[in-house]
Amino acid sequence: MDNGAVTVTDPSDPGAVETTALRSFLGTHPLFTSLPDETLASMALAARIKRYASGGLILDAFTQPNAEVFVVMSGQVDLWNDADLIGEAADERLGPGGVFGFSAMLIERSVGPRVVAVNTTTVAAIPAADAENAFASRSGARFLAEQGAAARQHLGPPTYSLVDELIVSPPVVVHPDDHIADVARLMTDRGASCAAVPLGQGRFGVVTDALLRERVIVGGLPGTAPAREVMDSSVPVAVLGDSAAEALILMLDSQADFLLVTDRGGGLRGMITPRDFTVSPTTAGVAVHEQIRRAATVEELRRRTRRVPPMLSDLLFRGLASQKVIAVYSAILDTVVRRSLVLVFEDHPELSLDAFTWLSLGSNGRREAVLSSDVDSAVAFDDSVQDGEIDRYRAAFAEVDRLLADFGLTSDAHGATAERAPFARTNASWRTAARGWMAAPADNQGAIMTSLLVDGRPIHGDPGLPAVTEVFGDLRRHPATMRLLLEESLSKRAKLRSVRDVFARRDAFDLKTQALLPIVNVARWAALSVGSAALPTTERLRAAAGSEMLPDEQAQNLIEAFDVLQRLRLRYQLIQQQRGEKPSDSLTKDRMSPIDRSVVAQAVREIAAVQRRMDNIAVYLPTEAWASPAST
Asked: pLDDT digits over 424-441, tens only?
């Protein structure tokens, strides 16, 4: 299609004049000012410079991936950032110096915008390989952050992720008096480039690799010196709920390489680096994710949520790894639940969204949700909330569950939802109940409730409020409880066919019940046995790898099996969705390829072998030795 573009050249020296002009032009633009001259020259040389007539289509990054960044050299362009609003008034108009196309280029996905020339316009298109240098610089990071802040000012709700969603693992924490040699060893063991040092009253310092090199290797500080002598106490701090754009600006203004994240009570919740702002899985589905976050009505939220499965198919088709697609889906589910809470509570002004913390349980709590996953939940209330008030909150939570069901997101059939009394308690009540389950797991479904709650992840409210998971940190001190939990974890065996299937002559296989759930249960128990607070199944297995109960080889076998089975599960469920079927975990032989059947069979054999070994170890090895290093 002719879009009215004309390549600009110079007859006497093709491209040279325009290239020189572009190099000078870029050197004055805030996005490129920190780049060396040779980089600017290379960028200008690689760029395509085109002139567009009025009304000419310059870019439609909704329909195809974009691999360039565009800079307006003269004229004006109109931008549409929402595919649903194309045809209405433009969202934005840019003049000379305006930059667009960077979002689609950076995440390599079709997330917009659509850009049309307002009048005769000259635009430089810089290839991604050259433009990425600009966004990796401090000026580029600041540009992205300011773009996010500006969008938030005009649109109201934040247009980028919250800092909550950038935290990928718990930080390494050391005491101010710990020897720096021990701190360095711990950082090495955890694969961390820094460690946090609590200083009291919500204040922290950090020990980094760079500081260790500067003050120990170069400065000669002895390894027995305390961490307080090598730490940097000027590290910036953000609070859960802050926008990622604002947090990035804070980091840049402080010229810091790390940002600490606390809850509202000053408790440390995570540590973020500049890289985390670019690799967050939520950015892969940024368009749908942000549309859901901004949904103003229930109907709009329903419409946006029903577009999620096709978006997942698109991400998988375009090459995003299945585990990342699943992470995207889990992040979007969090946003759907949070937005549903807000919309429901708008009709209940007598109830406060700040009175409780909402926890996602089950697969979404572990960030492993797929299309068939239930939306399990629990709530921890502030201790000041009375029983009568809790009943009114539970009624509102029931409305949230009905809303989610209307969106196609079902609740747990066995009742693990915040609308039920066992899953909606004050913080003190949760603490008391958890201690009771730990002491007597056979009573009051203690083992089942423990398994549910240790998968809990706060997605709304103050994450520092729920104390139930802290209580479970002492499980290793209860050998009888650990043994009972192990028996419960091994009760669901990995198998290719059940007795019921044999008698019914069905060639059906339930990926979740017969393969994935056994891995999840083993990983959960193994993490508890070594005192790990990790939630994702593969992280739990890595944390417990090398123990007597779960040697490195067996842990790696389970990790590989889990990844393979989750990949198959996601792919087949997306196929079911496209056929108009309800996504399920049940696969039939005629719908599976011979290769997939072979992969599943091998995975089940590996899982069953690990389960048998754990059974045998539990018989002759004392409970206190289960988490000890494997003998060689």
From this structure: 999 889 888 888 887 777
